[in-house]
Specification:
The protein is α+β, with helices and mostly antiparallel strands. Helices cover 34% and strands 34% of the residues. The chain is built from four helices and 22 strands. The protein has helices at 16-34, 107-167, 173-230, 353-357, and strands at 40-43, 50-52, 54-58, 61-76, 82-87, 94-95, 100-105, 233-235, 240-245, 252-253, 260-275, 287-292, 295-309, 312-319, 332-338, 343-349, 361-365, 371-376, 378-382, 386-391, 398-400, 412-415. The protein has a six-stranded antiparallel barrel with strand order 4-11-14-13-12-15. α2 packs antiparallel against α3. The radius of gyration is 53 Å and the shape is elongated. Mean pLDDT is 84; it is low at 31-35.
Length: 416
């Protein structure tokens, strides 16, 4: 008779390896699912800059360097070129309208004046000779007219005599006919000469008028050439200060070349070059200010120039209030240009991280400051001090604002 053995309950020794293996698998799966496997980099905390996100008013302005200039500047440019012979007035001197500033010399222009005067004299002599010849022709024509009139009168008298003789039958018919023909020929010749004299008179009148017009043009040309001689004296066009005179004795100056400028000191403006990034936001009328001598001075945008050179565009500012004491052309002011109204928002200090991230992400420190985690953010406007954070950060969070060049693609930074 068989005896049934009762199975022992509990974990036997042979089960221990299986249990250990299962436990290890579970731990590994949990580590894989729940663990943080982000690329990590250990850095020196002393080599970074940390900023704190704050909720504050964002002032939308940009800081630019401006240079003081007279509100009106008149350029000095000669109408005629030449060699600088004399500088009569020096830079910084006050000038009046019409004052001679520089005197030029031009030997070619002197020759042109002599040639124009010689041509005028030759034309005048030619006109006088032509008028004398025309007068002689007119007298000769008058003499010829008188001769023909006398001949016609004689032919007429002879014809009438022949008619009377023929009526009394004292002469032949042929003699009477010849006398009539001679008289008729004289009358026709006289009519032709009168027509020729009339045409000659008209031609002479037209010719003299043309020559007198040409002579008048030559006189005007001589006057213009002489005026060009006067243009060798470069004069001030307005009252003001001679702010620049860039010529030396013996220098060859071409027509239209800028050799200086005259400043109208009734008021001043400030010229500034602004980064093209702001060209769509800068417009006439925007307010600006700068500090000098412990006081603030207000400006306004007067004109925005559309041309961009080397990544910058030029803008003119004018004063809307008091001017600084002892203001001078060429002084540099550091201007805060207000681009918009202040608004509330989350702000972080400006830093070199922006060059690597473009403002799309940043490293945020954890609560104890031992680690920093990469986080996506969105940055809006910026001013010389702060970035405006639109998404991704809250007030009080600390961020690394120094450069990220050595962090590569690491997602976690361990601060040592």
């Amino acid at each position: 008779m068989d005896i049934q053995l009762e199975k022992k309950k509990g974990i036997r020794r042979k089960h221990i390896p299986y249990i250990a293996a299962g436990t290890l698998v579970i731990v590994l799966l949990g580590w894989i699912v729940l663990g943080d496997h982000s690329p990590t980099l250990k850095i020196d905390a002393r080599g970074i800059s940390i900023g704190t996100a704050v909720s504050d008013r964002f002032n939308d302005f940009v800081r630019v360097d401006g240079q003081v200039q007279p509100v009106t500047v008149v350029q000095l440019s000669p109408e005629e070129g030449g060699i600088v012979q004399e500088k009569i007035i020096e830079e910084g001197s006050q000038v009046r309208r019409g004052d001679i500033i520089v005197r030029l010399g031009n030997s070619q222009l002197d020759l042109q004046i002599l040639q124009a005067e010689a041509d005028l004299a030759e034309k005048q002599n030619f006109l006088r000779n032509t008028q004398v010849a025309m007068e002689q022709d007119r007298l000769n024509n008058q003499n010829e007219k008188l001769q023909l009139e006398l001949e016609t009168t004689r032919k007429q008298r002879a014809f009438r005599q022949q008619e009377k003789l023929y009526e009394e039958q004292l002469t032949a018919r042929e003699d009477c006919l010849q006398a009539g023909e001679d008289y008729e020929l004289a009358v026709r010749k006289h009519a032709l000469v009168l027509e020729r004299l009339r045409q000659d008179s008209l031609y002479r009148t037209i010719q003299v008028d043309v020559m007198e017009d040409n002579l008048a043009n030559m006189r005007r040309n001589v006057l213009l050439v002489r005026e060009r001689k006067e243009h060798l004296n470069i004069r001030s066009q307005i009252d003001g200060e001679l702010g620049l005179l860039d010529v030396v004795l013996g220098q060859n100056v071409t027509p239209g070349q800028k050799i200086g400028q005259i400043n109208v000191l009734s008021d001043y403006k400030v010229e500034a070059l602004i980064d093209e990034h702001y060209i769509d936001r800068v417009r006439a009328g925007l307010a600006a200010m700068f500090e000098r001598q412990g006081a603030s001075f207000a400006l306004a945008v007067r004109k925005v120039y559309p041309e961009v050179r080397e990544g910058k565009f030029r803008t003119d500012f004018v004063f809307t209030g008091e001017r600084p004491d002892n203001i001078r052309s060429g002084q540099t002011y550091y201007i805060n240009l207000q681009l918009g109204q202040p608004t509330e928002g989350i702000l972080i200090p400006k830093g070199a991280f922006f060059q690597s991230t473009g403002g799309s992400w940043i490293f945020v420190l954890d609560a104890d400051g031992g680690k920093a985690y990469r986080r996506n953010i969105r940055i809006g406007r910026q001013n010389p001090q702060y970035y405006e954070v639109l998404e991704g950060l809250g007030a009080g969070e600390r961020v690394i604002v120094s450069g990220y060049e050595s962090y590569r693609d690491n997602q976690v930074l361990v601060l040592d």
